[in-house]
Amino acid sequence: MTDVQVAIPSYHRAHTLPKKTMPLLHRLGYSDSQVTVFTNADEVPTYRHSLQATGMGDVQVVAAPRGCAAARNALHAHYPVGIRLMSFDDDVRDISIVKNRKLVSMSSEDWAGIVHLAYDACQRSGARMWGGYAAVNPFYMSPTITFGLCFVIGAFYGCINWGADPRRQLTGLDCGDPKDDFERSILCYLADGALVRLNWIGARTAYMKEPGGLQDTRTPEIIRDRCIELTRMYPGLCHLVTSKKSMPYDVRLRDTRKRKESHESRSVVA
Description:
Blueprint: E1 4-9, H1 21-28, E2 35-39, H2 44-53, E3 60-63, H3 68-78, E4 84-88, E5 92-99, E6 102-105, H4 108-125, E7 129-132, E8 144-146, E9 156-160, H5 180-192, E10 196-198, E11 201-205, H6 220-233, E12 238-241, E13 250-253, E14 265-267
Parallel strand pairs: 1-2, 1-4, 2-3, 7-10
Antiparallel strand pairs: 4-9, 5-6, 5-11, 7-9, 8-10, 8-14, 12-13
């Protein structure tokens, strides 16, 4: 996988990164020289020191705007258009795969096969982005690939890099954008007419529990306002959900603009 670059947007997690995501990337088969960390300018020295102190000095650290949406826009613009790019959050501790109805940690061999399958599916469908299932629970996961509009979680995703394509620029720059992965899924679907989601793999991460990241700026009011804003920006694609007690405001993605023959999922052998 030497032709794949890895981007990690990060904020206030200079000491978490070498303990979680970087060991995972090593296990999946990536070298430090393939990895670039994007963080706000005043934290660049801290990240470089932390990585060098743990023997990961070949990891590049690049200054990026503060805020998830702005940082994501910047990291895609940083790389040449058309390269194969992976993005991982800074607190992902494992990528799991369902085998025999059980979750197991992804091996480098498993991962190489997943990456090959995912990019092949992108080429066949015209999609430029692929990812895994949001809920890491074998009860809900399945050996299928979704090609239609779906939620591609931001914890990790792969793409054929789109650079600074204005059709894919995230808009939540003034609120830290707690729903950037929902908007990115919509934008890529609108631009390409397809997404690729492998429904038998998922990321293990401490959502909303790890110090740093979005937890430093996210509030229930910001989440509520952003959910409502997205439903107004993308009518017929993004729908408000208010029934979950653990998350009073959320959104769901579904293309209801017109009825058409569905090709959202196809069975594959996992």
